[in-house]
């Protein structure tokens, strides 16, 4: 509980007292081709790992069996993760916001391969390659007393030296809402704090090693991949999740990004079209995608 109070106080104070300094340059397309995406920390409360492993110990991304024994999970949440793991083992898996073409929400979307950050001064625009999802982060602002719930929540940001800090509340649970690819549940009490930094390769390689340990990387052209031999600046996100209705304690993990390989090297466009809802049929291998629908236009 002390950590939870500290996170709330630190986020509030940081928005007011964050030092004025040149903002880091996060421009460009950042790629994170590892799945299911999050990089568990080596110690302390951290994200779930996949219990489904191949003979050589690698995560089997086609079979998502979250470690329901992780002590961050309260009993009811642990049972949900266990049941979804059984579903994944018995057939093609379970519904999640990505395979159902719904907004991924936060923090699920943080595992998306492909991120661009545009600094607009009073706000940031964050675009994710998967289905071209968009977030807006209001800079040096405060949360409203009662934020209107939305899939990506109310995000406010500030800089602490060379670190971009984003605090998000008001995240709406959707029909297929889950925190990660393992089906970990969420509630309206969810609170996420993100911290983005640029790192030299020697600093980033520990996160890259953890990405390989608990994830799988695709050796193909699409989605875009990173140059693992790149020795320039990498970007790392350290995020902390708190939802007292689901978790016994706040927990943290990282997502380590490298610059996307130049298009000419891999045969794909700089930012390829990727519209999930254009192909809702699964060729008989799964039931059709349950696309978001509305009785009247929302525009």
Explain what this protein looks like in three dimensions.
The protein has 299 residues and is of the alpha+beta class. The chain is 17% helix and 22% strand. It is built from 4 helices and 12 strands. It has helices at 2-17, 75-90, 201-214, 263-266, and strands spanning 30-31, 34-35, 39-40, 115-119, 123-128, 133-139, 154-160, 163-169, 191-199, 216-217, 234-242, 251-259. The strands form 2 sheets. Strands 1, 3, 4, 5, 6, 7, 8, 9, 11 and 12 form a 10-stranded mixed sheet that branches. Strands 2-10 form a two-stranded antiparallel ribbon. The longest helix has 16 residues, at 2-17. It is globular, with a radius of gyration of 19 Å. The relative contact order is 0.21. Residues 8-16 and 220-224 have low confidence and may be disordered.
Features:
4 helices, alpha+beta, 22% strand, two-stranded antiparallel ribbon, single chain, globular
Topology:
Elements: H1 2-17, E1 30-31, E2 34-35, E3 39-40, H2 75-90, E4 115-119, E5 123-128, E6 133-139, E7 154-160, E8 163-169, E9 191-199, H3 201-214, E10 216-217, E11 234-242, E12 251-259, H4 263-266
């Amino acid at each position: 509980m002390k950590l939870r109070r500290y996170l709330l106080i630190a986020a509030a104070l940081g928005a007011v007292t964050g030092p004025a300094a040149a903002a880091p340059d996060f421009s460009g397309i950042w790629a994170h081709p590892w799945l299911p995406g999050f990089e568990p920390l080596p110690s302390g409360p951290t994200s779930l790992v996949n219990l489904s492993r191949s003979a050589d110990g690698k995560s089997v991304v086609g079979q998502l069996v979250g470690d329901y024994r992780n002590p961050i999970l309260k009993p009811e949440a642990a049972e949900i993760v266990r049941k979804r793991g059984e579903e994944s083992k018995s057939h093609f898996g379970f519904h999640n916001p990505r395979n159902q073409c719904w907004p991924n929400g936060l923090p699920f979307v943080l595992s998306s391969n492909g991120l661009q950050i545009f600094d607009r001064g009073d706000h940031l625009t964050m675009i994710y390659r998967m289905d071209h999802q968009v977030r807006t982060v209001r800079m040096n602002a405060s949360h409203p007393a009662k934020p209107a719930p939305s899939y990506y929540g109310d995000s406010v940001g500030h800089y602490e030296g060379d670190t971009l800090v984003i605090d998000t509340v008001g995240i709406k649970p959707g029909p297929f809402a889950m925190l990660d690819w393992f089906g970990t549940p969420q509630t309206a009490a969810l609170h996420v704090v993100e911290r983005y930094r640029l790192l030299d390769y020697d600093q980033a390689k520990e996160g890259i090693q953890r990405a390989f340990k608990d994830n799988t990387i695709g050796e193909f052209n699409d989605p875009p991949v990173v140059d693992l031999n790149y020795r320039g600046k990498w970007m790392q996100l350290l995020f902390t999740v708190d939802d007292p209705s689901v978790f016994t304690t706040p927990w943290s993990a990282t997502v380590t990004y490298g610059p996307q390989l130049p298009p000419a090297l891999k045969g794909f466009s700089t930012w390829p079209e990727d519209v999930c809802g254009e192909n809702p049929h699964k060729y008989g291998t799964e039931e059709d995608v349950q696309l978001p629908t509305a009785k009247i236009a929302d525009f």
